[in-house]
Amino acid sequence: MDVKSLKKLKLYGFNNLTKSLSFNMYDICYAKTPQHRQEYIEYIDEEYNADRLTAILTEVARIVGANILNIAKQDYDPQGASVTMLISEEKVQPCEEGMEGCIEGNTPEIVLAHLDKSHITVHTYPESHPDKGISTFRADIDVSTCGHISPLKALNYLINSFCSDIVIMDYRVRGFTRDVTGKKFFIDHKINSIQNYIADDIKDLYNMIDVNIYQENIFHTKMILKEFDLDNYLFGTAKKELLSGEKRKIKQRLKREMAEIFAGKNIPKV
Question: Which residues are marked as active site?
Fold first, then answer.
């Protein structure tokens, strides 16, 4: 879905608005044995290793119309991975001999002023409960841009890339830019909810709630899958291998885990 821009603004100088979109994405499963839990973490580490994450972020940069300046990536021991990508709105020419502010073969120093505003990062956190069999994979993603490009364009692609049970998103526009008369603009596009930019087929899958502070250009949306099928949450064990009492307890544990993550707090047992 396209970002709904305000009437074309004639700006004085550079567009200084910084648009930041942050995700916490969660995948939850039940792994019955310590071996299954270890295998789940190994599976996640392979499925979302640094190379795969780099490919996802590269596509994000393409979708929002940004140019990649630098990529740093790392797989961690024993688990997890990180990728940081510096981006810019406009292409930056490599240094040539005699160019001011340059060391030949590198990027001009003048671009460093914008690197703290335009970046894409992802960090992954696979982990498991020590004795309850619940394993959780969390991916934290930040897409921060300055200028006309907007991270909202990559919203649906990122949600689809991780197939998450729970998605928690924050979007904020910071700073201001000026038009040619000197008038300040604290936002340059129309929005009253992140949900405005989520595709209908994705919205059909999730229950969603918003907490928005419109006057501060802060928008918060939480999503949790509507449907629950135990088969989709078992790792290393088939549902038919479980007794009915086991299935009931596992389902309760999984639903409790999801409810607490969605609420952002521990829920007292009744």
Answer: 118, 123, 146
